[in-house]
Design brief:
Blueprint: E1 2-10, H1 15-26, E2 33-44, E3 52-61, H2 64-70, E4 77-79, E5 101-103, H3 107-118, E6 124-126, H4 132-145, H5 179-189, H6 205-222, E7 226-228, E8 233-240, E9 246-253, E10 258-260, E11 264-266, H7 273-281, E12 287-288, E13 291-300, H8 301-309, E14 326-328, E15 334-341, E16 344-348, E17 358-362, E18 370-379, H9 381-384, H10 391-407, E19 413-417, H11 418-423, E20 441-443, H12 452-468, E21 478-483, E22 490-491, E23 506-508, H13 519-543
Parallel strand pairs: 5-6, 5-11, 6-7, 11-23, 19-20
Antiparallel strand pairs: 1-3, 1-4, 2-3, 8-9, 9-10, 12-22, 13-18, 13-21, 14-15, 15-18, 16-17, 19-21
Helix pairs in contact: 3-6, 3-13, 5-13
The structure holds flavin-adenine dinucleotide.
Length: 544
């Protein structure tokens, strides 16, 4: 099989034209093209008047060796990569040995547990939140009735933080073993649309994610795994191994039980602030890391479509457009768009009482009127929150509390028209763009609940973005705050064996541990850590 990349065709082409283009590019007769499939499809919209679809194709041809020989040195004609997944180890049939524990049923924990279950290791999954259906009701409670349930919300519960999201499933991580492909294949088995395997920028939207995590649960349970919902890990029992080194022995659960566990994948996400504090108190190595703060910005989706696609705006094959913008300010801050959601809505993403946090989500159709994106400014521990491993958490809480007050102390979010934000005056109403955040947005002055440097950096960047994308800085564009949970404020550092630097048996993983950002990269990290744990466990038991 050959992999042909960067094959470009006009938007409206037929499959016969695609086949002809493949044959022409490979310099073969049409009849010598035996079979082909699309490995990836994206688009190139740099010339708006002539937007192209860009294909990667896997092709079977009559004389593959001859075609490869003819294209020696051509980086776009290569043997197809082997993207199949192979388990590095498998438990003996009917494994009765120690069961690994996974804390957290977000994308990282779910894929870790699924891989462990597929290897025959019957994991136990401990999740502080509720199963996804009950969780959905609680999440809507905040959006519809201003009622926050601290253990069951956008951040906590089965499916993790990405469940009520746009479900974007791509990442820029290096992935030489094609583990992302394994994740997407499992998602398709669980009900995701098959095109996520071929789209360059796939997404599934929020409703599909709910049924997908239920389906993954059924698979894990059928393989002997066990879920414990509404069970929070409250402490870590750490002893010494026979070399005198720190060894995890068990977990103290919120029901008072101590669960014996010598190998635990900790995939708690970036909002498990209480768990970070417990880990720190227990002496587990943890350090502050950089992240970003800012606001959500909303534009009419049509404006984004026209800016990105020109006359191609609205073409069904392109769908609603996304964007990605970045600016380095004169004061050395980087301002960038983050987690852009075409045709979606801004969501209330708080998990703690008396705090307001924004994020974004969409349905599969991405058919809502507004596009939204984080507009955030980079921050570092050294410069912005010195003071120890948990100083980033304190920093987040401060701005989230100020946002709660600025919004009216009732979970409405503070918001501002862009023109008012740039002019340094509070908004008293919104204009032609209606904010989408529920339970509502209070027009006010966002400078009250953002660091001065972030306000200055965004004020510098917005007109620059307006020049890059006409209409981006329209006076009525809505800013809603605050966006503080862009990534984890801590790193729970691990060594080459993927275990905690100083606590054997603890495998920090995913976004909360600072090793992923986004659904796909968290799930890939879950696989890597599950493999490392299984190799350690089965290696040891084989020797025993
Ligand atoms: P999480 O998904 O945060 O999962 C952690 C789990 O651990 C949670 O279920 C939590 O309840 C549980 N937990 C925490 N502490 C404990 C404890 N002490 N005991 C037991 N259980 C515990 N990313 C994308 O790639 N695409 C998107 O479109 C996208 N949109 C998003 C939209 C929203 C609204 C949000 C909030 C996030 C979005 N993200 C998106 C980010 C993405 O959700 C995260 O990067 C991803 O979920 C991280 O996965 P994780 O498994 O590491 O952690």
């Amino acid at each position: 099989m050959l992999r042909l990349t960067e094959l470009k065709l006009p938007l409206d082409h037929t499959s016969a034209e695609l086949e002809a283009a493949i044959a022409e590019r490979l310099e073969i007769e049409p009849a010598a093209l035996l079979r082909y499939s699309v490995a990836k499809r994206g688009n190139d919209a740099r010339r708006k008047s002539a937007i192209k679809l860009v294909y990667a194709i896997d092709a079977s041809v009559a004389d593959e060796a001859a075609v490869l020989a003819r294209h020696v040195g051509d980086v776009h004609v290569r043997p197809s990569p082997d993207t199949s997944y192979r388990f590095p180890v498998m438990a003996p049939e009917g494994w009765q040995g120690p069961r690994p524990v996974v804390i957290g049923a977000g994308p990282c924990g779910l894929l870790a547990a699924l891989i462990l279950a597929q290897m025959g290791l019957k994991p136990i999954i401990v999740e502080r939140g509720k199963a996804v259906r009950a969780r959905t009701k609680d999440t809507w409670g905040l959006w519809r009735r201003s009622e926050l349930t601290p253990e069951s919300n956008v951040q906590f519960g089965e499916g993790g933080a990405g469940t009520f999201s746009d479900g974007k499933l791509y990442s820029r991580i290096k992935d030489p073993r094609h583990l992302g492909r394994k994740v997407l294949t499992e998602f398709v088995k669980a009900g995701a649309p098959p095109e996520i395997l071929t789209e360059a920028h796939p997404h599934v939207g929020t409703f599909r994610l709910v049924t997908m995590v239920m389906s993954i649960r059924e698979t894990i349970e059928a393989l002997g795994g066990e879920y414990r919902f509404e069970t929070r890990v409250e402490d870590f029992v750490i002893g010494k191994d026979d070399k005198g080194e720190r060894q995890l022995e068990g977990l103290l659960l919120s029901n008072g039980e101590v669960l014996p566990a010598k190998r635990v994948i900790m995939a708690v996400g970036h909002s498990a602030r209480d768990t970070f504090a417990v880990l720190h108190a227990a002496g587990v190595h943890i350090e502050a890391k950089p992240f970003a703060v800012g606001v959500r910005i909303e534009h009419p989706q049509r404006l984004v479509d026209v800016a990105r696609y020109g006359p191609g705006a609205g073409h069904p094959i392109l769908g609603p457009a996304a964007y990605s913008l970045a600016h380095q300010t004169s004061l050395g801050r980087s301002v960038y768009s983050f987690c852009m959601c075409p045709g979606g809505r801004v969501v209330a993403a708080a998990s703690e009482p008396g705090r307001v946090v924004t994020n974004g989500m969409s349905q599969y159709s991405r058919a809502e009127f507004n596009a939204n994106s984080g507009l955030v400014v980079d921050i570092t521990p050294e410069r912005d929150y010195p003071g120890g491993p948990l100083a980033g958490v304190a920093f987040q809480r401060k701005w989230e509390e100020l946002a709660y007050v600025a919004g009216g102390s009732n979970y409405r979010a503070p918001g501002q028209r862009l023109e008012d934000f740039l002019g340094g005056r509070p908004s008293t109403s919104f204009g032609s763009i209606t904010p989408s955040y529920q339970p509502g947005v209070t027009p006010t002055d966002l400078a009250q609940c953002l660091p001065d440097f972030a306000v200055a950096a965004m004020r510098e960047a917005l007109p620059v973005f307006g020049r890059q994308m006409p209409g981006y800085d329209h006076p009525d564009v809505v800013l809603t705050g605050v966006e503080t949970r862009t990534s984890s404020p801590v790193r729970i550092t691990r060594g080459g064996d993927l275990q905690s630097l100083n606590t054997h048996g603890l495998y920090p993983a995913g976004e909360g541990a600072g090793y992923a950002g986004g659904i796909l990269s968290a799930a890939v990290d879950g696989i890597r850590v599950a493999e490392a744990l299984a190799q350690d466990l089965l290696g040891q038991s084989a020797a025993a």
